[in-house]
Amino acid sequence: MSGLIYRNLKIYFSDKSGIFFSLMGAMISFVLYLIFLSQNMISNWSNVPDTKLLLDPWLIGGTMTITAITTTLSSLSLMVQDRERHVLADISLTDIGFLGIQFSYLITAMIVGIIMQLVMYFIMGIYFMIVDKSSMDLQIFPQILGIVILSSFIWTIFNLLLLSFAKKVDTLGKIATIVGTASGFFAGVYMPIGVLPATVQKIMKYTPALYDTAMYRDVLMQSQLRQSFKNLPNSVENKFKEVMGINVKWNHQILTIQQDILTIVVFAIVIAVLIILISKISRRVIISKV
Amino acid sequence: MKILQTKNLVKKFGNKIAVDNISLTIDQGEMIALLGPNGAGKSTTINMLIGMIQPTSGQIIFGEETTDIRAYRSKIGVVFQSSVLDSNLTVADNIMLRVKMYFKHINVQSLINKFELSSIWKQKYGSLSGGQKRRVDIARALISDPKLLFLDEPSTGLDIQTRTKIWEILDGLRKETGLTIIFTTHYLEESQNADFIYIIDQGKLIADDTVLELQKKYTKNILKVVYKTGKTQKMELDNKNEAIQILTDKKSAISDFEYRPGTMDDVFMNLTGRKIR
User: Fold this and answer.
1) Is the pLDDT of residue A11 over 70?
2) Which residues of B99-131 are buried (b: 16+ CB within 10 A; e: fewer)?
3) A-contacting residues of B 56-75, CB under 8 Å?
4) pTM here?
5) Which residues of B touch A6 (CB under 8 A)?
6) Is A90–B89 a contact, with Cβ atoms under 8 angstroms apart?
7) Buried b vs exposed e over A35-47: b needs ≥16 C-beta within 10 Å?
8) Cβ separation B103–A290 shorter than 8 A
9) In Å, how far is A290's CA from the nearest CA of chain B?
């Protein structure tokens, strides 16, 4: 299996333009923020001190989710390409079994997701450190790493489910475009969830993206939130958290980070069951040449 | 010793019968050619033999008795019609990562020497010429030290030097290691390399024999005579005596002549007809 994982990783990292385009969604959110989103939001929350220092980690959190979604998808796409080029048929002649082949692609996508999220984290963190003098707290790094791994995992299997329906390379490009565009909205980065209509908010709560972002923001913004809201009433802070999507609210209950994690795990289980059901059909398709 | 046998192999795609009742028997160490026009069912047959697709009915028997492709998989090497190697990776990566996909220990050095890969070892596969690519393809198919090598049109698009070189290597391997080779080709003269030939048309086996027997059965010898008047005449003859007779009779009128036995091209055309399908 290590041979196949290593091959898949080499292929992903040797394709520079592929990497660039798999980070497109993340870069769009970053650039949009720099150009005008941050200004908009700062003026909306002018009563809160140090809004900029609050919003920088807020953006990092959302962009990390987008990165996890798009890079794992891009890495998993290799499987569809390999199927079409009959590479899977060829690999099935080796000693790696069917399950081994499947797992190799999954593990590759997870590794890619983890590496690319960390890269984006440090790029954005260092950028804001230089430009906005925001601090990069290394004490929260273990927590960040945990979320990086969890979000890489959930998006890998989410995308596997998505790609179960893609039999052609042609379809891949279309899926990538849709996912790349949609992820920014579902993660609540292009617009804070609070400013969207109630129905849209409801839909967003049915994908793991919102919870993923909420976990990141919870950890990344914690100290600055305490700082900024220490002289303000609790209701203002709760309002801010809800509108900006730092916490997800179910009916009247505000979810804690533990509940976010639990929700994501439940998502993972449901998706895994769906994949297993579908794989009964796709097993034949993957190996078959015709 | 039998290494591969099929019994009444049938493959249907919907209503279309791609392979119709084909029975083959292949012995260890033989070089076998599968010939047939485009769409005859050659690739479908090979794909069934390597376990890529399941036959609709019929049996494939590996070695002496097993019908389980999974048990036999590691004894098979395949060179696909379109290359399955990664063009972004180097030759070294393509070969060495493949080695890691097998559990057993593999000595790559002898393959590198045999296929003269050391000069292109660090180059990206995608930047190689067609002939170099083919050499890497075949070397990689031989990594697991298979008993049976399948080549689906291995020499399409290659120049004559490369083709000759590839056949030399394959023939050498066969003599050296007792490798059994099964190939399909469009270059009919290449099938002259084979010990035994199966000709398939429209899914059916229409002839199977050695090259010599096929030529004897399905072609006649051809005598082409050029007269001093500039006129040429082409005759199909049964044996050399007839030719000598004709040449002696017309000796004074003849300026030149050519006498040749029927080729595989003639066998093929006589069997499958001249219509393009």
Assistant:
1) yes
2) bbbbeeebebeebbebbebeebeeebbeebeeb
3) 73-74
4) 0.85
5) 97, 100
6) no
7) eebbeebeeebee
8) no
9) 8
- Chain B residues within an 8 Å CB radius of A3: 97-101
Q: Are A247 and A214 in contact (CB under 8 A)?
A: yes
In CATH, the architecture of B2-214 is 3-Layer(aba) Sandwich (3.40)
Q: Locate the chain B residue with the closest alpha carbon to A97.
A: B70
pLDDT at A289 over 50: no
pLDDT digits (tens, 9 = 90+) for A38-78: 888 888 888 888 888 889 999 999 999 999 999 999 999 99
The span from the CA of B93 to the CA of B101, in Å, is 12
3-state secondary structure of B277: coil
Of B13, B84, B99, the CB nearest to A90: B84
ipTM value, please give it: 0.80
The answer to whether the CB of A55 falls within 8 A of the CB of A176 is no
What is the least distance, in Å, from the CA of A3 to any CA of chain B? 5
Query: In chain A, what are the helix, strand and coil shares in percent, each to the nearest 5?
Result: 80, 0, 20
Taking Cα atoms as reference points, which of A191, A181, A188 lies closest to residue A212?
A188
**pLDDT tens, position by position, B193-227:** 889 999 998 889 988 999 888 888 888 888 999 99
Do B84 and A290 count as a contact with CB atoms less than 8 A apart?
no
Q: Are A224 and A59 in contact (CB under 8 A)?
A: no
CB-based contact B98 A15, cutoff 8 Å: no
Letter for the amino acid at B273? G
- Residue among A65, A71, A112, A77 nearest A218 (CA): A65
Measure the CA–CA gap between B125 and B218, rounded to whole angstroms.
Answer: 43
**Both tokens of residue A272?**
């895994």
Chain A residues with at least one Cβ partner in B under 8 Å: 2-4, 6-7, 10-11, 14-15, 85-87, 89-96, 287-290
Output the DSSP codes for B145-176: --SEEEEESTTTT--HHHHHHHHHHHHHHHHH
Convert the pLDDT of each residue in A140-176 to its tens digit. 999 999 999 999 999 999 998 888 877 788 888 888 8
Integer Cα distance of A206 and B220 in angstroms: 77
Cβ neighbours around A195 below 10 Å, total: 14
Number of Cβ pairs closer than 8 Å across A and B? 68
Among B86, B93, B98, B124, the residue to mutate for chain A (most A Cβ within 10 A):
B86
Residue A110 corresponds to which amino acid? M
Question: Looking up tokens 């379109």, which residue turns up?
Answer: B82
Record: contact A11-B82, CB cut-off 8 A? no
**Residue in B82, B88, B98 nearest the CB of A15:** B88
Q: How far apart are CA A94 and CA A84, in angstroms?
A: 18
CA dist A285 → A86, A163, B52, B72, B101 (Å): 11, 13, 11, 22, 22
Of A15, A85, A288, the CB nearest to B84: A85
